[in-house]
């Protein structure tokens, strides 16, 4: 991506000498001018040559390429981030497609799983249950006197397909925060990553003498809820206008906590709402290709965890909001499956979480369906045969679950099957896109959770497979909520962002192109999403700003942080 010419913003800074060189927010390294070096006591601390940011990026990229293993590239970039924020984000922005998988999924998962063994210095805030009496003191030690626009918090129970990682959850919180800055334009100085160390049930960590977190089984029940609530109330007390982003909480807590706090603070859960929103955009693009409506589809969702439930609810809300269908009618278009098979009444309340109840199917629908499973479960193939879905979504982490029989059966019932194997990493995808393409004679509309090469069509053309990447939308949703000073992040604001993303679909111009924009366009895409969110917040009276609709675009553009160096003036009373 490209940025506008560097606008020299003047900063008055109180740091000098080694203190400014060790401040990642203010350090310029060899880009300090001669005048700045004299003013800040750096002439003897830096080599003579003054480099441009472009030259620094070229040098850093050569250093990056010298590391062959993805994990070594990850640790190099982490080291760069600890030295110089502008250089770190400028480098990433110039190699967005190449480097995002290194700082985020899938490489960050490996870094998180090895967190205690790779540990060198801490980043973010660690709030630990056995030290809960000092919770506010610890929180304020990092945040007092700062403007905080964004807090990304994780308890690390269910991380990136690798499960419970205990205190290593700080890695996903910092990575998510970095994406907010990289493609959303959130000022990194106004963002905070937090891990809530409530123990871990990962036996490998508990038995690892080098584990740096609290070596105790996870707390549950009221103790857990009280600790979470204490943290949330601290956020509401000291930073009432920030966005609070919940990340990688376990399936029993993610949706429950979102529902508990969403009416009293601007909170967001990417696993529930972000996954749901980007999937809604993808399906909206697909129905644009097929010239149909969301309300015309029959949805089968394989995997009913946080992501599956979030997708179902977001699609349902989209049907209600966009097509004007009532909620109960919209619910009937969904068929969800988990480890017990199809969610139907006879499974009993002990096997159905509260959030799933509105999607449970009546047993009477399936009384005449031959069941091959000895436990009486209705499997995916039986559901596909009966329902004839137009949309098949996978978030089960069961690699190969969409077999040839299932895909071919689906293709019998619809002209353009919409198939989304969304599980990450790629080895866990429910079906390889090329197989789904072949088994549907090139008629499938496809999107995946990981990047895949184009599919070769029977006519020899290539079909571009969209990557259904949350980062195409959640940074824009968050930035829009922050800039509008929204009291809450409403469903209608999320749908507005999803509709804007869908409107940018390349497939609307060429059906053989991707259902979603390329990730390289994520910064410009999230800019558009943020504008839509701000406009919606203002329209529904949920915003804390009074901007005219004609000024929103310029206001959002002006507010986005960009990785460029400003001009520094030494001032003992300045910023630190």
From TrEMBL:
The residues the record assigns to binding a divalent metal cation are: 247-248, 271
Protein name in UniProt? Malic enzyme
Recorded GO CC terms: cytosol; mitochondrion
State the species of origin: Dichomitus squalens
Q: Which residues form the active site?
A: 104, 176
Q: Which cofactor does it need?
A: Mg(2+); Mn(2+)
Keywords noted in UniProt: Metal-binding, NAD, Oxidoreductase
GO MF annotation: an example: metal ion binding
Q: Which NCBIfam families match?
A: PRK13529.1 (NF010052)
| Location of the Malic enzyme NAD-binding domain | 272-538
PROSITE patterns attached here?
Answer: MALIC_ENZYMES
């Amino acid at each position: 991506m490209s940025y506008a010419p560097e606008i020299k913003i003047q900063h008055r800074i109180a740091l000098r000498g080694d203190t400014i060189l060790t401040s990642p927010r203010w350090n310029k390294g060899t880009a300090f001018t001669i005048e700045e070096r004299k003013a800040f006591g750096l002439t003897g601390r830096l080599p003579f040559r003054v480099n441009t940011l472009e030259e620094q990026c070229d040098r850093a990229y050569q250093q990056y390429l010298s590391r062959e293993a993805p994990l070594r590239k990850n640790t190099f970039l982490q080291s760069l981030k600890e030295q110089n924020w502008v250089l770190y984000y400028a480098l990433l922005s110039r190699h967005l497609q190449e480097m995002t998988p290194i700082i985020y999924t899938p490489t960050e998962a490996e870094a998180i799983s090895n967190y205690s063994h790779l540990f060198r210095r801490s980043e973010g805030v660690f709030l630990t249950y056995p030290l809960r009496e000092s919770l506010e003191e610890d929180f304020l030690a990092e945040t007092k006197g700062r403007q905080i626009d964004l807090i990304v918090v994780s308890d690390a129970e269910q991380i990136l397909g690798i499960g419970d990682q205990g205190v290593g959850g700080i890695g996903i919180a910092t990575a998510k925060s970095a994406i907010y800055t990289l493609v959303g334009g959130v000022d990194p100085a106004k963002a905070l990553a937090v891990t809530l160390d409530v123990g871990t049930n990962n036996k490998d960590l508990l038995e690892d003498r080098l584990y740096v977190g609290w070596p105790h089984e996870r707390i549950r029940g009221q103790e857990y809820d009280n600790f979470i609530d204490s943290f949330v109330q601290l956020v509401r007390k000291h930073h009432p206008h920030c966005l609070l982003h919940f990340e990688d909480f376990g399936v029993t807590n993610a949706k429950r906590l979102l529902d508990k706090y969403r009416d009293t603070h601007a909170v967001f859960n990417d696993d529930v709402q972000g996954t749901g929103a980007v999937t809604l955009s993808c399906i909206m693009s697909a129905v644009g290709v097929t010239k149909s409506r969301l309300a015309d589809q029959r949805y089968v969702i394989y995997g009913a965890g946080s992501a599956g439930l979030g997708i179902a609810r977001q699609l349902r809300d989209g049907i209600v909001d966009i097509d004007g269908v009532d909620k109960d009618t919209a619910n009937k278009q969904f068929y969800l499956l988990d480890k017990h098979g199809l969610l139907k009444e006879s499974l009993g309340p002990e096997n159905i979480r509260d959030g799933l109840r509105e999607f449970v199917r009546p047993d009477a629908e399936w009384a005449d369906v031959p069941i091959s499973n000895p436990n009486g479960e209705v499997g995916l193939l039986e559901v596909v045969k009966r329902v004839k879905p137009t949309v098949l979504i996978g978030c089960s982490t069961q690699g190969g679950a969409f077999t040839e029989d299932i895909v071919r059966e689906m293709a019998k019932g619809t002209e353009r099957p919409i198939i989304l194997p969304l599980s990450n990493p790629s080895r866990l995808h429910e079906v390889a896109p090329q197989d789904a393409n072949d088994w549907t004679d090139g008629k499938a509309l496809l999107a995946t959770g990981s990047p895949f090469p184009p599919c070769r069509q029977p006519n020899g053309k290539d079909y571009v497979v969209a990557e259904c990447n949350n980062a195409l939308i959640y940074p824009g949703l968050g930035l829009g909520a922050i800039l509008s000073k929204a009291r809450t992040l409403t469903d209608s604001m999320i749908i507005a962002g999803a509709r804007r993303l869908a409107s940018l679909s390349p497939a609307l111009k060429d059906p053989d192109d991707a259902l979603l924009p390329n990730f390289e366009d994520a910064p410009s895409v999230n800019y558009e999403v943020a504008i839509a969110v701000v406009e919606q917040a203002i329209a529904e009276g949920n915003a804390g700003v009074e901007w005219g609709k004609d000024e929103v675009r310029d206001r959002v553009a002006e507010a986005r942080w960009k990785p460029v160096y400003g001009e520094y003036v030494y001032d003992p009373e300045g910023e630190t």
